[in-house]
User: What shape does this take?
Amino acid sequence: MTIRRTLIVLGALTLTAGTAEAQEWQTQLQTQTQIKSGASFANMSGRGFSLMDVARTSLLNASASESVSITLPPGREYILLGVCDNDCLDLDLAVSSGGIEIASDTTTDDWPLLEITPTGSSSYSVNVTMYDCSTPNCGYQLTVWRK
Assistant: This one.
């Protein structure tokens, strides 16, 4: 009976630790979005932008890419801001419409930023690339800001 009870307690601790790890990278992303959108970096509010949407919060394998679909109604200015967790060293973004790339940020940093002012189609594909991650996967967050 004692061995069984010990296994149940260990299982509960493992589950709790896994949940804490999941919350840690998500908390890091929220903090990074707040920092990188702030006055010392992108200065979103100072430039007249406000958060419109958190388009994606996800884990991405090192050196992998994924596509995120977004809709941006024409006639306004938008900024796409990517941030990643503390294990990420370089995250890249590229946005395309109709298969044609219209903007990209492939600089070596962990907070790519793209400015877009749609004039026509409102459907876009954002390619997110986890270019450099010090662990098997890293968390990232893609936010959309509107002026």
